[in-house]
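User: I'm putting together a small comparison set for a docking exercise, and I want a reference complex before I start. The sequence is below, and the ligand is flavin mononucleotide. Could you produce the 3D structure with the ligand included, as structure tokens?
Assistant: Of course. I'll restate your input first, then give the structure tokens for the complex.
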Amino acid sequence: MDVSEALRTRHSTRSFSARPVPDDVIEAILLDAREAPSWSNTQPWRVAVATGATCDALRQDFIAASQTRLPTPDVNQLFTYPPGLQARRRETGFGLYETLGIAKADSEARTRQFERNHAMFDAPAAVFLFAHQAMAEYAVLDAGCFLMAMLLSATSHGVQSCAQAVLASYPDLVRARYDVGDEWRLLCGVALGYEDGHVVNTFRPARAPLSDIVLARR
Ligand SMILES: Cc1cc2nc3c(=O)[nH]c(=O)nc-3n(C[C@H](O)[C@H](O)[C@H](O)COP(=O)(O)O)c2cc1C
């Protein structure tokens, strides 16, 4: 699979089967991802890999935390969206709910679907991605390169994924199980596994036309 095909094949999976991802496949994906470029090759990222019982335990931790306390992310997750971005966000959200047959007015069903995030959509593996706080936005940019490399490599290895900012809501849960210092900021988790036949996995949100992205030349 070439990069173009991986880019066009990758999509967010929100319902996984129980089939585990073999350790050597996860390692191959991370070996690919570490090839990502970064500012002065500082590689200002860290990952915590959760599989098997650890992944299941973290899943339960996230579900419990989401039911009992407010998120305390390392990075801001509350934005005031400008109208153009808010429109895309709403369209994507409603598109997902439409795929699931959830009516716009059914806020309970929407909440239930949102809560599937904390269960990592039942993925058998998750990778938690950190960026070093000393390099501010550039560490986040570099970690974004790492993230994309990981998602594309997963695709080429036949593994499905979903990047999840929701899994950065309670960094203390991840810190409790991994030795990661406070200088590392948790950006997101990535659910990894094999998608099942659930209709949610057919959702493909549209992209803006190039004319909306590329600035006109003057
Ligand atoms: C940094 C990042 C965080 C995301 N967080 C979530 C999340 O918490 N929950 C979720 O269901 N999807 C999440 N997504 C997936 C996006 O919703 C998805 O990438 C976007 O709608 C485009 O769809 P596609 O990935 O299927 O192409 C996230 C994606 C990125 C890149």
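Residues 136 and 185 are 10 Å apart (CA to CA). Residues 11-12, 14, 92, 117, 162-166, 188, 205 surround flavin mononucleotide (CB under 6 Å).
User: Thanks, that's exactly what I needed.
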